[in-house]
Amino acid sequence: MNWGLIGASTIAAGHMISAIRSCAGNQIISVLSANAERGAEYAKTHDIRSSTTDLEAMLADPNLDAVYISTTNEKHKFQALAAIAAGKHVLCEKPLAMSCADALEMVNAAEEAGVVLATNHHLRNAGSHLKIKELIDAGRIGNVQAVRVFHAVYLPESLQGWRINSAAAGGGVIPDIVVHDADTVGFHLGEYPLEVTAIEASGSLGQGVEDSVMSVWKMPSGILVQTHEGFTLRHAETGLEFHGTKGSIIAKNVMTQQPIGQVELRTADGVEEIKFSDHNLYARSIDHFMGAVAGQGQPAATGRDGVRSLAVAAAVKQAATTGTRVAVNYGGL
């Protein structure tokens, strides 16, 4: 497949370019940047054939098969809809859009056009998380009763910018990290929250947007989920815990872009260290995306998955802002 990068981004440079090229025959033939000089330098650095500031011109290339979108959040909808209208397959960074209604519009447009729209939720591609899901599905901890998620980190200076000071661009820890946790918990449990409560804070890094949030979710099965996301903690571990009637899964340092971390299964028989694959998360995402394009299965995270995670984040934001318990609106999905 021939790919175009919509956004000369850090995540593309650090993870996605190599992931796309890891599949034999894939080429990246163009990159779009709002800044012509930056785009040209980016293309040169990453051995990409051409750069442009013109989305329409990029999408008019008949040799282009698919695009990867990693621009700021407010641009996703327009760029994805343009790519879909041009008959291109779309892998889009989370969150899919600024609202669930916009994300649903993207999903419906892709389905009508017969192209693949996927959300680049990387965590569900990790060997650690695939193993955790396998343990839960096999009943190793019995019926899940509670989940705790620890995803408060220190946002590197290189990634701060709009994420800590621009609500208009989709900044804030809720659209940046809560969507990941919503997708990950939903992936493991096979269900998404009915309602949420939350409290947010800002000021340490956030300038007009939240930089820390804690929330509690109630799942349809009655499972309670407790989460903590943040941009401000320099020395905290990430992880998640699943507690069931027969045991617990304790996973540390697995809320990451790297195939690292530790997973323990704790039961009446003791503590068992669980081994898992250390494959590249993003390469697996690309592999599944290409399989979906070929009519063989689905992307690792579909557009509909992206709508669901966005719906949870939107409800967490509303709950934190209003101080009320909020029902999650999935827009009819």
TrEMBL record:
Domain Gfo/Idh/MocA-like oxidoreductase N-terminal positions: 1-121
One example GO MF annotation: oxidoreductase activity
Species of provenance: Falsihalocynthiibacter arcticus
Pfam families xrefs: GFO_IDH_MocA, GFO_IDH_MocA_C3
Matching InterPro entries: Gfo/Idh/MocA-like_OxRdtase_N, Gfo/Idh/MocA_oxidrdct_glycsds, GFO_IDH_MocA-like_dom, NAD(P)-bd_dom_sf
Start and end residues of each GFO/IDH/MocA-like oxidoreductase domain: 130-249
Sorted UniProt keywords: Oxidoreductase
Protein's UniProt keywords contain Nucleotidyltransferase: no
Protein's name in the database: Fructose reductase
